[in-house]
Design a protein that fits this description.
Layout lengths: L1 H22 L1 H35 L2 H8 L1 H8 L5 H11 L3 H11 L5 H10 L5 H12 L4 H21 L20 H13 L5 H35 L2 H15 L7 H9 L1 H10 L5 H14 L1 H12 L7 H27 L17 H36 L1
Helix pairs in contact: 2-6, 2-11, 2-18, 3-10, 5-6, 6-7, 7-9, 7-17, 8-9, 8-18, 9-15, 9-17, 11-16, 11-18, 12-13, 13-14, 14-15, 15-17
Protein name: Sporulation integral membrane protein YlbJ
Pfam family, one: Gate
InterPro entries: Gate_dom, Spore_IM_YlbJ
Length: about 400
């Protein structure tokens, strides 16, 4: 009976979306173009190098080398193997859904157990510094100093989520036979790296080709989700669903003494972060602190668009989605609380930080963040087309050989 209800519900929602697409073709097309442009100019060129590099490092055994050296840090803190440090670092550097992609690959390589992979996915999907500083702080709020506060709350909250999730699944791990602890050394790590590389029978050219193909395949899937959720959020606003549901969020915001006017942008941000953050920054009512508290929450929550991307990436494995979803709520709460705590020392007390002409984050002034985003928009389409053509050539050559 439950499955029949689920079938009726899913089919009904799909039919309703199709009806809305037919009724509002112009608005749907505009939203689709907006999502495609975001993927075309920013997402694809910014994530592709990280995806390809991660695949190559895993294929050549370098991640195994890193994992052994970082085992004494990752195991006590997050209760995951040392290879998790690679997923964590790459996830923070490049943004979501890189952490899920790498965690899935490590699970497929049997370097993680199911529970360890679920722990790792829960705290390795963070927003990139480029998005926090360049898009949100500079692009939306026109204040690069705000990036220090948002980034600190976001990444510290992310680490706290990892520490909390270390206790997840401990009961199930009691019956798992743990391997004997090896003495950590560079020599042992190098031997394990060499062993991992020798266990991969693929030649060098095939490893590189597979890295390019799998990375592009994942990014095409990511682009599809971005476009779909861009259209979906637009349709929900047109038919009046978003304004109606946002009234519920008004009461929730009022419980935390936050302006009710932020309810609609918050609801939008729960689906797509970029649109939500932009709408929050453009809200006239409400203090700056209230706005960035809500922005911090949606950054930690990731948005349903990114959550759908993560769900699709982990679907081929036995990694479950529910721990990741719980961690997203936890991350949003932690980031919001940390924003309140750090607001005065990291933002109001600016006298201790002379940002005028001084680089942010070791050499990146405010103008540089804008320059990076501008260059991505200019070169992004060229990079996207180039690598799509490369993937087409690789696939064509492999089909000819078969």
């Amino acid at each position: 009976m439950t499955q029949k209800v689920k079938t009726i519900l899913l089919s009904g929602i799909t039919v309703f979306i199709a009806f809305c697409l037919i009724k509002y073709p112009d608005q749907s097309f505009e939203a689709s173009i907006r999502g495609l442009k975001m993927w075309w100019e920013i997402v694809f060129p910014s994530l592709l190098p990280f995806f390809i590099t991660a695949e190559l490092l895993i294929g050549f055994g370098v991640v195994r080398f890193i994992g052994i050296l970082f085992e004494p840090i990752m195991r006590p803190l997050f209760n995951v193997p040392g290879v998790g440090s690679f997923a964590w670092a790459m996830g923070m550097a490049s943004g979501y859904p890189t952490g899920a992609k790498i965690s899935t690959r490590l699970r497929e390589e049997r370097q993680l157990t199911q529970i360890e992979a679920e722990r790792l996915v829960s705290f390795t999907n963070a927003s990139s510094p480029l998005f926090i500083f360049g898009a949100v702080s500079v692009g939306f709020f026109y204040d690069v100093k705000l990036g220090i506060l948002l980034a600190s709350a976001h990444y510290i909250g992310n680490a706290l989520v990892g520490i909390c999730m270390r206790f997840y699944g401990r009961e199930k791990e009691k019956n798992v036979v743990k391997s004997k602890k090896q003495k950590i050394s560079i020599i042992y790590a190098f031997k394990e790296m060499h062993r991992a590389r020798m266990n991969d029978p693929r030649p060098f050219g095939q490893i590189v080709g597979d890295a390019v193909l799998t990375s592009i395949q994942t990014l095409v899937m990511v682009g599809g989700f971005i476009i779909f959720f861009s259209v979906l959020t637009k349709l929900m606003f047109i038919i009046g669903f978003s304004p109606a549901i946002s009234t519920i969020f008004e009461y929730i915001l009022q419980l935390f003494t936050l302006p009710a006017d932020l309810s609609l942008p918050l609801f939008s941000g729960l689906f797509e972060i970029t649109q939500g953050a932009r709408a929050i920054s453009q809200t006239e009512t409400g203090s700056l602190l209230a706005k960035i508290i809500v922005v911090s929450f949606i950054l930690g929550f990731n948005g349903f668009s990114i959550q759908a991307q993560v769900a699709s990436i982990i679907a081929p494995t036995d990694i479950r989605f529910s721990p990741y979803f719980f961690a997203r709520i936890l991350h949003g709460v932690f980031a919001s609380i940390l924003t309140v705590i750090l607001y005065k020392p990291l933002y109001l007390n600016r006298t201790s930080f002379d940002f005028k002409g001084v680089p942010v984050s070791n050499g990146i002034p405010q103008d540089s963040w804008l320059a990076i985003l501008y260059n991505l928009k200019e070169l992004g389409p060229i990079i996207t087309i180039t690598f799509l053509l490369i993937a087409f050539i690789i696939l064509s050559n492999r089909l000819r050989k078969t």
